[in-house]
Amino acid sequence: MTATLNSATMYLICGMIILFVAIVCVIFLIRAYQAGKAIGMDSGVLKRAITSSATFSILPSVGILLGVIALSGSLGTPWPWLRLSVIGALHYETQVAQGAAEQVGLTSLSAAQMTPTAFTTIALLMSICIMWGMILSFFFNKMYLARISSRPTDQAGGKAGTSTESAAADSAKKSSESNNSTSRQGFGDAAMIAMFIGLVSAYIGSYIGGFVSGNGSFAFKGSLVPIIVAAVSAAVMAVFTWLAEKKNMVWLESFSIAASMLIGMLAAILFG
Question: Is 77 exposed, middle or buried (0-12, 13-18, 19+ CB in 10 A)?
């Protein structure tokens, strides 16, 4: 099965899709550059924007490369390469692939246990579950942009002799509208945070459950190592977040995921 997952046919199919996406990116780059020139932007500014964007994309992409390497042992190289090069995300791909593998009867996500039916199911589920963002954006993105772009319009305050009470009432009304707008925007952020907390809690809970099922012995490394890796990765991410927010080292945000993954993998090697 490993030979099939890494066959020339798989490389050809996935490579053609990735090439198409790369060509589209180049077309958009050229059109954006031409649009910038059309509105009078300096060529030097545009070139610096291109250079800086390319530079700051290199190290964060290490995390994506690590994801391809991590999944290639079970799904071959072409498929993870396609998923993580176009629209996939590492935390999503690994989660869905593992869940699909369990549902088709595999005890672990590995090439040794992989069957054509299992791979087809995993690949199909990975694709179907992630396509809804594009579909919903196609139908509802225009409506969403109209809502977030709308702002309360300032109206003239009537006659020149408006009383102090009226001005205070107008100010209170605008403040209330602003607070409501902030609350609506804050709900989306809170919902995303709650979702990720639930996701992380589910993973950590499964690790703790595995440790407990091993009779609570710290010698049972098979269950303890994921907990250690999760703790180390979280600590590294916390340090990067602290440096970015408290020490104004915002540029570190681009490297936090890659660094957390690398140090987490190092912890798995040391404690495994």
Answer: middle
Measured CA to CA in angstroms, residue 214 lies from 175, 208, 269 at distances of 57, 10, 21
Q: What is the DSSP string of 54-101?
A: HHHHHTHHHHHHHHHHHHHHHH-SHHHHHHHHHT--HHHHHHHHHHHH
- Torsion angle in degrees (nearest 10) through CA of 71, 72, 74, 75: 90
What tens digit of pLDDT does each residue of 129-163 get? 888 888 888 888 888 788 777 655 444 444 444 44
The number of beta carbons lying within 10 Å of the beta carbon of residue 231 is: 14
Question: Rounded CA gap, 9 and 189, in Å?
Answer: 43
Residue for token pair 């369990």: 102
Cα–Cα dist 200/250, whole Å: 25
Q: Say which DSSP state 111 is in.
A: T
Quick check: pTM over 0.85? no
Where are the strands (E) in 137-223, listed by range? none
